[in-house]
Design goal:
With 273 residues, the chain is an alpha+beta fold. It is 33% helix and 25% strand. The protein is built from eight helices and twelve strands. Strands 7-8-1-2-9-10 form a six-stranded antiparallel β-sheet, covered by helices on one side. Strand 5 and strand 6 form a beta hairpin. Helix 4 runs antiparallel to helix 5. The mean pLDDT is 96.
């Protein structure tokens, strides 16, 4: 029999931003390779417990057809003879959510839904983890990524997986919202084996945001003569003539647009180096 992906997760969406995502944590190696699935304008799926990995692509295919989260859960589980050991969370294109916990999932196991999210977990210390997941998501400010991270941290603080911690993952999608506007993957981060995976996942996201995030244009700095001289001198010390060339080498090319203005994140990194 396959190993149980005993874990806690939350699938959710931000319809105003056109984002769907999944956050998950577990005492299981590389939980991000099994549980989270998401597609922009379709929805998101988390498959866990004695996970059926086909719930991911098959669930997204059903969501793509415009089926509701509840109908997707019904179709997937009714067609699966192993349904009693499965756990599943789904959010659809319009924010509908559904969760399923099979009768044979290990205690504590269960889930709850709210507007735009489904939270679930199995082999947990208690149901407090799922309640904390939901509460953390409902009350956290900011974009979907931030709310999912807060939910995950709240779930762990409330007990989490009763076996301990090992891995965590975060996936958020948005049409053309990823790298260079040519990818639908806004964030796809995994911590496969770590003693504090949720904290490490947050650190990775902070690094991701520094490299690939976006500073509102009205917060960019005008490059006057004094600042232009400083930039040129710093670039020369680093062996570069053009800001764009250095930024590409520093993986900051997404934050450079011409030389009349500069993203303060880029300037801070240039000064740090």
């Amino acid at each position: 029999m396959a190993s149980a992906v005993s874990t806690f997760s939350i699938v959710a969406c931000d319809l105003d931003r056109g984002q769907w995502g999944v956050a998950v944590a577990s005492k299981f190696l590389a939980v991000g390779s099994v549980v989270p699935w998401a597609e922009p304008q379709a929805g998101a799926v988390a498959t866990q417990s004695y996970a059926n990995p086909r719930y991911g692509p098959d669930g997204l295919a059903l969501l793509r057809q415009g089926l509701s989260a509840a109908e997707v859960v019904r179709r997937l589980t009714e067609a699966d003879e192993g349904r009693d050991q499965r756990q599943l969370g789904v959010v659809d294109a319009v924010g509908g959510a559904a969760t399923f916990t099979g009768a044979a999932c290990h205690d504590w196991a269960g889930g709850r839904t709210g507007h735009g999210y489904a939270a679930q977990g199995n082999l947990l210390v208690s149901g407090d983890t799922v309640e904390a997941l939901a509460g953390g998501f409902e009350t956290a400010p900011g974009p979907l990524v931030a709310r999912l991270l807060e939910a995950l941290a709240a779930g762990q603080a409330a007990g989490g997986d009763r076996r301990g911690q090992q891995s965590a993952a975060l996936v958020v999608v948005q049409r053309d919202g990823g790298y260079a506007g040519l990818s639908d993957v806004l964030v796809d981060l995994r911590v496969d084996d770590h003693e504090a995976p949720i904290g490490e996942l947050r650190r990775l996201f902070e690094l991701h945001d520094r490299l690939f995030g976006e500073t509102p244009r009205d917060r960019w700095l005008t490059v006057d003569e004094e600042l232009r001289t400083e930039i040129s001198e710093r670039l020369a010390k680093l062996g570069h003539e053009r800001l764009g060339d250095w930024a590409a080498a520093a993986n900051l090319e997404e934050r450079v647009d011409g030389d009349e203005e500069i993203d303060p994140v880029v300037l801070a990194e240039l000064r740090r180096r």
